Automatic annotation (TrEMBL):
<dbReference type="Pfam" id="PF13181">
    <property type="entry name" value="TPR_8"/>
</dbReference>
<keyword id="KW-0802">TPR repeat</keyword>
<protein>
    <submittedName>
        <fullName>Uncharacterized protein</fullName>
    </submittedName>
</protein>
<feature type="region of interest" description="Disordered">
    <location>
        <begin position="457"/>
        <end position="485"/>
    </location>
</feature>
<feature type="repeat" description="TPR">
    <location>
        <begin position="296"/>
        <end position="329"/>
    </location>
</feature>
<dbReference type="InterPro" id="IPR019734">
    <property type="entry name" value="TPR_rpt"/>
</dbReference>
<dbReference type="InterPro" id="IPR011990">
    <property type="entry name" value="TPR-like_helical_dom_sf"/>
</dbReference>
Length: 513
């Protein structure tokens, strides 16, 4: 085998078609490098690690997580052997493999594990003065940003994106648009616009000789923005461009995300049957490629389409399934619960407007296809207006406290203000609506006291040491709204911590003032 010739083919294939195109050549090279190690050659292990990385990325893109993990492990073994013979190039290959392991963990919603892996990768030093070191470091920051975003640590996530932007601007201009797109996405996720960042990314990418993967990612982000604005034709065009580009690169995982977009476009066009069918396809495909985030999004779109079709029982069951899919991804669980609470509340409104006769007739309809008590943890369909509003409250109030816990983890500044205005206060309002419909006056008073105290903790001037600690980043105290008894809303504080792993209030208590 002419290894140099095959390596050139490998490089050309990667530039033209990404990891999937380069994978066959990587496997050819491995057959040769495996023989070299018997002579204790460091180059063979550096090449082995590089080829294992390529195969791992190709497997990852296809959603073959077990195969990707195996290749990463074997690649790291090659890195260890290269280090044993003091080949300084081990550091770069180790960085690339560890970064991929972290991204694989993040894709499985194991964001804390991913951050730990990225921390280990960041300790490696550029011992060989590798020409791609700064590109790798920029991608490592972007990977870290994604994991932090998944945990709801939005301020830290934006900081990582800004660090990636600064590093790319200085050393790797090709990645500047990617960093700008991430900042744009975070702004939108926390209630802002992000339009200027996305426009800048598009302008820079247009001026560059961009790789297909970069253009595909930009098109997908443009589709997301167009969909938010209701420009369905533009969204459909961008989705098609993104999907075809990702498929051309063998990146099936990224391409699957477009299916959910098509389903939402059909739903907004009131093509309900098409939306339901498209959402079901997106759920099936995202499950095949092991993408819980895309699965959860597809479940939400399916639930909304089923609600549009009047199939309320199926819609609630679908959101229960979405919770199972989300696993331990706390922010996905909050997003799903917001939709569950709205749907349950709407059921209560419909039952209330229709009166008891409708409730009786519902036993034979889609409303009554499942019976039983309401529970914030999912389960049966409410049969009466009180059951529906109780279900909405059991979901919305803990979710409101969870969103407030995210707010208290954010340092004072623009992101915190946007999150408070666009997310926390809206969820608190949703929770108050459900409690008001039930006439639970003590809980309403208690929730309002906690909301008011939380606002005080965010602006300073708080009246005691517990709130001073909250200003420093710890959870604020529980409010005792009624003398000599536990707060009527404290159940929701405990539920928020149990469901989402977020600590909205500490154990200390202060009396309402």
């Amino acid at each position: 085998m002419d290894l140099q010739a095959v390596y050139e083919q490998y490089s050309e294939a990667y530039e033209a078609g990404g990891y999937a195109a380069a994978e066959p050549f990587a496997r050819q090279i491995l057959t040769q490098t495996n023989k070299w190690w018997r002579r204790g050659d460091g180059t063979s292990q550096v090449l082995s690690a590089q080829m294992r990385y390529t195969i791992a990325r190709a497997s990852f893109d296809r959603g073959e997580f077990d195969a990707a993990s195996e290749e990463i492990a074997r690649g790291l073994e090659a890195v260890a052997r290269a280090r044993t013979v003091k080949d300084p190039r081990y550091a770069f290959e180790g960085l690339m493999l560890l970064m991929t392991r972290g991204e694989l963990e993040a894709a499985q919603s194991r964001h804390d594990d991913a951050l730990g892996t990225f921390f280990v990768a960041a300790q490696l030093e550029n011992e060989s003065d590798h020409p791609l070191w700064f590109e790798a470091q920029t991608n490592l920051l972007l990977a870290k940003q994604w994991a932090l975003q998944g945990l709801g640590r939005y301020s830290e996530s934006e900081q990582a994106a800004n660090e990636a932007l600064a590093l790319a601007s200085q050393h790797e201009p090709r990645l500047v648009p990617t960093a700008l797109e991430r900042i744009s996405m975070l702004r939108r996720l926390t209630g802002g616009s992000g339009d200027e960042h996305l426009a800048a990314a598009e302008a820079i990418l247009t001026a560059q000789d961009a790789r297909p993967a970069d253009r595909a990612a930009l098109a997908f982000n443009q589709a997301s923005v167009a969909l938010q604005r209701g420009d369905l034709d533009a969204a459909e065009r961008y989705l098609s461009e993104s999907e075809q580009a990702f498929l051309g690169l063998g990146d099936v995982r990224s391409a699957v995300s477009a299916l959910t977009g098509y389903a939402e476009i059909a739903r907004q066009r009131r093509q309900t049957s098409d939306a339901i069918a498209a959402a079901r396809r997106a759920i099936a495909r995202s499950a095949e490629v092991g993408d819980p985030g895309t699965s959860a999004e597809a479940y939400i779109v399916l639930a909304l389409a089923l609600q549009d079709a009047g199939r309320i029982a199926e819609a609630l069951e679908t959101l229960d399934e979405a919770l199972e899919t989300a696993g331990n991804s706390r922010m996905e669980r909050v997003r799903i619960d917001v939709n569950r609470a709205v749907l349950a509340y709407n059921v209560g409104v419909q039952l209330n407007n229709a009166g008891s006769a409708f409730g009786a007739a519902a036993a034979g309809s889609s409303f009554g296809s499942a019976a039983g008590a309401a529970s914030g943890d999912g389960g049966s369909l409410p049969r009466t207006r009180d059951e529906a509003f109780a279900l909405a409250a059991s979901i919305a109030v803990p979710a409101a406290f969870a969103s407030d816990a995210v707010r208290h983890e954010l340092p004072p500044g623009e992101i915190r203000e946007r999150w408070t205005r666009e997310v926390s206060m809206r969820l608190a309002d949703q929770a108050l609506q459900a409690l008001t419909a039930l006439g639970r006056a003590d809980e309403i008073v208690d929730l309002l006291e906690h909301v008011a105290a939380s606002a005080s903790a965010g602006v300073g001037g708080a009246p005691d040491d517990a709130f001073e600690r909250a200003n420093a980043g710890g959870p604020p105290p529980r409010i005792r709204s009624f003398p000599d008894k536990d707060g009527p809303i404290w159940w929701a504080i405990d539920a928020a911590e149990e469901r989402y792993g977020l600590r909205p209030r500490g154990e200390e208590t202060v009396t309402a003032w």
